[in-house]
Amino acid sequence: MDFEFSSDSVMLRDMVRRFVQKEVRPLEMEFFRRGSIDEAQRGQLRASVEQMGLWGITVPEQFGGGGLDVVSSCLLDEELGSTFLPVEIGEVTPLLFSCRESQIERYLQPALAAKRKAFVAAREPGGLQPELWQTEALRKADQWVVNGRKEVTGLPAPEDFWILFARSTSGPTAFLVDAGAPGLTLRSAKGALLEVQEALLSVGSVLGTEGKALQLAREYAPIRWIRSGARYLGVVSRLLEMSAEHARDWVALGAALSVRPAIRRMLAETQVDLESCRWLVYHAAWMADQGQAIRGAASQVRLGTGVMLQKAVDRTTMLFAGPGPSPQIEINRFVRSAAPSALLDWALDRAREAIASRVLQSEAEGR
After folding, report:
1. Domains 7-93 and 218-365 share a fold
2. Span 230-245, pLDDT tens digits
3. CATH 3.40.50.1700: does it fit domain 218-365?
4. pTM
5. Angle at alpha carbon of residue 121, lines to 115 and 123, rounded to 5°
6. Are 98 and 216 in contact (CB under 8 A)?
7. Burial classification of residue 4, based on how many CB atoms lie within 10 Å of its CB (0-12 exposed, 13-18 middle, 19 or more buried)
8. CA angle 96, 102, 104 (to 5 degrees)
9. Is pLDDT at 2 greater than 90 in this prediction?
10. Which numeric CATH code is attached to 7-93?
11. How confident is the model at residue 261 (pLDDT cuts 50, 70, 90)?
12. How many C-beta atoms surround the C-beta of residue 354 within 10 A?
């Protein structure tokens, strides 16, 4: 059994690691103070990504990307997950891979070129589950009339667009809608709220097939779960780094925090969780590159890394809540940007259900 990464994958990982350490991390504090970095800094990061040959490297080849293998993509994701600053590498949501005809030129190609950005509007005040959606799309002749409300993240620029999910008589349906389209209003109410009032959308705005929105990007979902798991590895690695540094350096009652049994226990458990999940992630990634069925393994990655992340956040928060200064970077804010809690909880429940179903089926077949 070979546990070695290829030399090309290691070279990619090391290159991205140097980039994160030298160019990205120095910008983190400004990002947290202002909520963004200026355009010059953003442009410099984009130039560095392009110079390293990383822009679009993980996009499938059939859409004009580099088609990077899954193991190498996970190594890249893990390194990018270790910084609090989101770094763009020319990726788009796989939902856009369902674009057809004029949608490709109007939405997919500009998104791949970073000229337009897609914002997903699926979750509603009542929840993320489709059965709870109140946003409704009614077909009238050659148009759709959409009404409802969506909880969204991010503020689209005028050139950006929404992937708007709604209920239709055929089932959940997704629409491509320009950010400035009539009938769409972005309001702030415990976050961002997208109000849709009598929005008139053309028949050609449907993404994929009417009533089949939940099947969009289904074939890409397992790989996305694996890669998200790799990103969580990076997040937890950074939290562990911060925790260990704080435990070593902060002295209370004449002794460093690192000598306290409770602190040492938390650090040890986080380290074991991290290594355990690393095996889950890279084994599943290897399976994907071998062309094997990965949905079951990807569900385990989804659950294992999500739980690891939650535990690491709890432990890190407890460690910094004791004696000594709090970290300059807000831990919970960082983690929320990487994995919103409501979305993470929903994903974990889906993963638990999928894994339990497989276990029960296997046990029944084995009788």
Report:
1. no
2. 999 999 999 999 999 9
3. no
4. 0.89
5. 150
6. yes
7. exposed
8. 30
9. no
10. 1.10.540.10
11. very high
12. 17
